Amino acid sequence: MDDVTSDPTTSSSSSLTAPPRPRLGFLSLPPEIRLEIYAVLLVLPPYSKYDLPPCYHHHHHHSSSHTSSPPSTSTSISTSTSQQQQQQHDHRHYAETDRQRLHLTVHASLLLTCRLIHAEATPILYSLNTFVAHPSLLASFPRLRPWCSPVREAPALALVRRFHLTLRLDCDLPFTRERAARAFSGADELTVEAVQSMFLGVGCANLRVLEGVRGVRRVRIMGSTTGFEEYVRWLEGCMMTPEGGEVVGFEREDEAMSHRLNIPVWPVTMKEIQAHG
C-alpha cells in the first residue's frame, strides 16, 4: 500500500496566508483629518449678493442645452467656426457654473450620520460659515444664503459667529443702536454692505447705528461708501475695539456735517464756484 504524503508546496502556501485586514471606516481616521473633511463639505465661500441658488444653475444649463439647435450642413466654414467657438465658450461657461454650484452646496445631511459626527461637524457648519443677517432681527433668524431657511434653534444660533449685514443708507432703519450692539458685539467677523438707490444720494448717517458694536475680531465695511471713507475706517476700528475699551470720537468737521444733514459734503474752492458761475 502506497504511503500518502502531503504536497510541501501546498502546506507552505497555506501557512503563509495572511489573515484578512479589518475594514477601516470613516471614524477610524484621525480627528484632524475628519475635521478637514467636514470643512470641505460644510463651509461655503464668503457670501456675495451675486450668488445664485443651485436650482438656477441646473435650470439654466438644461434650458440652454435644449434650445441649442444642431449645426446645419449647408453653413459656410466661417459659420461652422463661429459655432465651434460658441460651443467651446458654452462648455467653459457650464464647467464654471458647475463649479460655482458645487461651491454653494452644503452637505448638511452629514450631521445625521451618527452622534459623533454630529458633535464634531455642527460647530464647523455654524461657526465657520458667514450667515446673512436678518434685515430687522439681525443675529436672530440668520440665513446661510437668502434662499435658505433661517436658523431658529437657540443652540445653533449661539454657534453663529460670522455675519453679512446689508444696510441701506437711504431708508429708515428697522433696528436700533442697542439692538445692533447686542447682536454683533463679540462676533468673529462682520461684513457690512452699505447700499443706496442713487450714487452719492445720501451720507453715512445710518452707519452710526453700528457705533455701539464692540469686540468684533474682523470688520469690513464695503459698498456705497464714497465721500466718507475716513469715517468708514474709523468705524471699523471702533467696532474692533475690545468691549470696555476707550474709543476716540470721530471729529472731522465735514464728516460731522454729513452726519447731521445725511448728505455728503465736499470741500469746494472759490475757483470752482467761480468756474460754475
From TrEMBL:
Record domain DUF7730: where: 26-181
Chain spans, region Disordered: 1-23, 58-95
Domain of life the protein comes from: Eukaryota
Q: Where is this chain compositionally biased, Low complexity type?
A: 1-18, 65-87
Q: Which InterPro entries match?
A: AN11006-like, DUF7730
PANTHER family given in the database record? F-BOX DOMAIN-CONTAINING PROTEIN
The name this protein goes by in its record: DUF7730 domain-containing protein
- Give the originating organism: Purpureocillium lilacinum (Paecilomyces lilacinus)
